Amino acid sequence: MVGKNCFAIASDRRLGVQLQTVATDFQRVFKIHDKLYIGLSGLATDVQTLYQRLVFRHKLYQLREERDMKPQTFASLVSALLYEKRFGPYFCQPVIAGLGEDNEPFICTMDCIGAKELAKDFVVSGTASESLYGACESMYKPNMEPEELFETVSQALQASVDRDCLSGWGGYVLVVTPTEIQERVIKGRMD
Amino acid sequence: MKLDVSAMENNFAPVHAGVGDDDDLGLFGAGADLPAMELPTCADFDGFQKTNKEMLKHKKGTTTLAFIFDKGVIVAADSRASMGGYISSQTVRKIIEINPYMLGTMAGGAADCQFWHRNLGIKCRLHELANKRRISVAGASKLLANILYSYRGMGLSIGTMIAGWDEKGPGLYYVDSEGARLVGSRFSVGSGSLYAYGILDEGYRYVMSVEEAGELARRAIYHATFRDGASGGCVSVYHVGPDGWTKLSGDDVGELHYKYYPVQATPVEQEMADAPAA
Q: What range does the domain containing A170 cover?
């Protein structure tokens, strides 16, 4: 979700096999560089593999270009990487958030074969995505300060995952501004 | 987020008025034990039933348990209703009060359980009126099992436990929509039952106080709600004794978790909390 010169990216922490919960500390939001994060929902093995591939590609880019990737470029990279596997896809829906030129927040989401969807306010993915759309739509306000943005994102996340059997068991929220990064683990319903 | 459990309060006074105004003999006429519900008239009955079943397929997403101990029967259940992945309610009453001394649990299709338990309550009351004595738990469970057997294969989805106290003492039966009727002293039904069995079997002793037994049931259901995605909400624990049932507790699982496993700040977190003050 986008705020005033900042963004927040959040996820739940459950790892499950259909109805059975296997872990409650699964990391889904990954750092690419200080101002670029990617959240991946879907099949856990693809989440981890895709993250490792993307970090690899970004490190190569850093070596060649001697700078960090812009969020828009990274989004195109992810899209291309996913479409390469058009006929045997990664079962992941990424959510990309970053601060671009002049610290302008950039967010986008994609389906599992790389269809980019840019948005100015918020993007969601996962099993509770429909709930999340509703919650974010009603709680979002433009130009929120980092503290308010954190509250909004946490509440929207908790409200939505509390209506989904397959999500929840805690939350993880990251708020990034040009000067600092705040990460917090949210206590939620563990059922 | 605390749940609004007002939907789980019992707002109805116990109905002892009976069935005085019933004109049609549908339920206690000669055909009382045969399927009394209308069946659809169509060319391919079996095919139609098959597609129906697929459409209404419920996976018994729930956790309920009941066990007998020296002071009666403990019955406990969670309160989540799920439609596939969507949680439709966190405050469903899965322990159904058939009459003041008998309880039934709900697992499977909510509509099926609610209707047939109420139907069973009616039949039990009629038995009391006709025979001037309460029906036994064995008799009540047999009534239900026979009805469910006659609808076998038509897609009813019920996995219930009938628990009560009659002249022979505490009674517990497992009845399901496939027609099974099992007598036993410890049962757990639903998608979360395996997790509940783990806690229940480990902590079970025949001689326990009512509080200990209630706490065992509460912990078993709590652990099932933690591991199973289709169970959650609140844990309701009931005790059936010689004078009938009483509700021992109703706890929100979200809060129970932090009661059993309080959050302990790791050393790093503690430092981070202390740092700004330093």
A: 2-186
